[in-house]
Amino acid sequence: MRVIIEKNYEKMSEKAADFIASQVRRKPNSVLGLPTGGTPIGTYKELIRRYNEENLDFAHVTTFNLDEYYGLPASHPQSYYQYMKQNFFDHINISFNRVHIPNGMVRMDEVDAYCANYEELMKEAGGIDLQLLGIGGNGHIGFNEPGSSLGSRTRIKTLGQETRKDDSRFFENDIEKVPKAALTMGVATILDARTCLMLASGKGKAEAVKQAIEGPLTSQTTGSALQLHSHAIAIIDEDAASALERKDYYIYTEKMRAELEGDY
Ligand code: PGA
Predict the structure, then answer these.
(1) Which of 9, 135, 159 has most ligand 1 atoms within 8 Å of CB, for mutation?
(2) 65, 78, 135, 172: most buried, per Cβ within 10 A?
(3) Is 140 among the catalytic positions?
(4) Nearest Cα to Cα of residue 206 among 238, 233, 241, 237
């Protein structure tokens, strides 16, 4: 895994936007996999700025969101549908018929077919070119909680107590108001993306980041599955990098990479 350490949240967000912007400029009909949460907000802001000021064009881009709370209608203020509209889609020229966000209101007896169809839609779109990811305090990617099969596909997943506690900040700090489950891409779904870009910021993520990047490959930290990916890049700030044992090595290799790119 390539590990890029940036000074702070702003720099991390800019770097992530660099990768996404260059993907979209290189291939205007790119398929992007998108996350929600606190971490990517700065990246979305920077992409909106580039849309407004630097002609970054999303007109032909297709998107698939990683997950959605189960039981929340799209109109609910805390649904990921609302999050995506407010933080990104309403501010760029994306076409809503190319936006895909799991529907959290699918009837329980239709969930399996719905999730299989979500996978089918990704395939039909040509597969995800670039999957942006956050990482949970418990090491999850998407809502693939500890213990999720590394071979999992899109499905319904019960949320762990730690995740519900983390997310209660969006639900008036009342854990009881946090949905009990989510529809989420599986670990194997995520690994199908051609590039995976994992972001992390802050000391609260340092241990999860260490486990995902340097720990053993284990379903207990689903972020560690990125070690299997041939083109996974972690963009993390110094606080999130603070527990890494090989931090100096990652800084060295990025420096060498820049020198090589300058030389050739
Ligand atoms: P956060 O969530 O960006 O809100 O920290 C990340 C995650 O749980 O995947």
Answers:
(1) 135
(2) 135
(3) yes
(4) 241
- Tell me the whole-structure pTM to 2 decimals: 0.97
Query: Does 39 sit in the ligand 1 pocket, CB within 6 Å?
Result: yes
Domain ranges of the chain: 2-263
The one catalytic residue in 138, 144, 192, 239 is: 138
- Span 168-189, average pLDDT: 96
Tell me the pLDDT tens digit for each residue of 147-173.
999 999 999 999 999 899 999 999 999
What percent of the chain shows pLDDT beyond 70?
100
**Ligand 1 touching residue 38 (CB < 6 A):** yes
Name the class of domain 2-263.
alpha beta
Alpha-helical runs (H) found in the chain: 9-26, 41-54, 80-87, 111-124, 161-167, 187-191, 206-214, 247-263
